[in-house]
Amino acid sequence: MTYRDIELEIDDPVAVLRLNRPEKLNAFTYDTLREIRAAIDECTADRRVVGIVITGNGRGFCAGLDAATLAAVTAAPNERREADRNDDTLPGIFSYLLEVPKPVISAVNGVAAGGGMILAMMSDLRVASNDASFTTVFLKRGLIAEHGSSWLLPRLVGIGRALDLLWMSDRIDAATALKYGFVESVVAPAALLSTACDYVRKLAVTSSPAAIAETKRLLYRHVGIGYADALREADASQWRFVASADAREGAMALVEKRAPKFTRLGG
Question: Which of 66, 196, 231, 261 could cross-link 53 (Cys pair, CB 3.0–4.6 Å)?
Answer without folding.
Answer: 196
